[in-house]
ABC transporter ATP-binding protein (Phycicoccus sonneratiae), 376 residues
Amino acid sequence: MPDVKVSNLNKIFGDNVVLDNVDFTIKDGEFFTLLGPSGCGKSTTLNCIAGLEQPSSGAISVGDTTFVDTDKKLFVPPEGRNLGMVFQSYALWPHKTIADNLAMPLQIRKVDKTEQRRLIDEALDKVGLLHLRERYPHQMSGGQQQRVALARALVYSPSVLLLDEPLSNLDAKLREQARAWLKRLQEDLGITTVYVTHDQDEALALSDRIAVMSNGYMIQVGTPTEIYETPATAEVAAFVGRCNFLEATVTDVTSTGAALKLEANGQQMTVDTPEKVTVGDHVTVAVRPEKLAVLPADDTAMPGTNVISAEVLTTSYLGSRFEYDLKVGDHVVQVVNDRGGLAGAVNLTVDPDACLIFPQADVLSEDAQALLTVAP
Ligand SMILES: Nc1ncnc2c1ncn2[C@@H]1O[C@H](COP(=O)(O)OP(=O)(O)OP(=O)(O)O)[C@@H](O)[C@H]1O
């Protein structure tokens, strides 16, 4: 399977810059996800690869074949690209059987009838629906229809699979099952896949690499672990997984620069970080809810570093864990913990290694700010 190379892609609708120098390469057989909030340009990027949208400038190639190069005024139409695409809506023909739905792309490619039947059965077998080949779409569940849409995209052996939120019409449970199934299928087929979603859990679970997009930019490209553990900006930390943010001022830096002392909310904290900062810098400290420890205020087992007094506001029991909202000064801090039954005054400890430091100019969205502030 070939690489996909997207170079300096720009798209302008009227005076709205929707893609701003988007640039990435997807490796052979990779599951690559475009992740970001609604309107950030994910679908436009995917549609440019598919040929459904013409970029204002830039180039796209798959393997040795160039599909778009605006400098050379080259544009290969969608039907000349041999890419498989699945949309959120599945786009199945309601009055055609499943087998006939799959026959459509083969008829367009003038495949003979015997070969059509073989390819249709092979594709339906891959998605586990061969026994339902004569049914109509309305006689199938949402999950089955989603598999048919995928089989239809695979039936002509596309070089790359393009998936635009293909699981978002499924309910939560089915969606999780479909996610695991899709991952196995993609690995078995080894097909290079570009996946669009605004669902961070889906992106983390499915992808070899994720590109986080915001306002037409690609902010960070990395493996799920890199994106989650070492987000490039506070915005990425806020968007991928949950995160607590605290505004702080640097009051001391060790000679090696590895540890900082910070003052936040009138409390002192020590943080280990590779970031280069100097005394007086205003920074944003980010820490994931599961990296915080919380114990009753009178528990003497609490370690000495970064102990912060807090008060339990709400407790949510989620079966395998408890989630707490704690009041720390004027802020709400979210903590995930195995231990239930915490109430009233508690102590929170922050592991110096668990904190991420960002420049304070790296402004958080108003939504993130609102989430973290205690209402008056
Ligand atoms: N044909 C068009 N004409 C004008 N503006 C458009 C057009 N298509 C998309 N846009 C705008 O481009 C921006 C990016 O849209 P796009 O569909 O790529 O976002 P997205 O990240 O996929 O969002 P969503 O998850 O909601 O689909 C949006 O502001 C959208 O309104």
Notes: The CA atoms of residues 284 and 358 lie 5 Å apart. The radius of gyration is 25 Å. The chain has a mean pLDDT of 87. Residues 13, 16, 18, 36, 38-44, 198 surround adenosine-5'-triphosphate (CB under 6 Å).
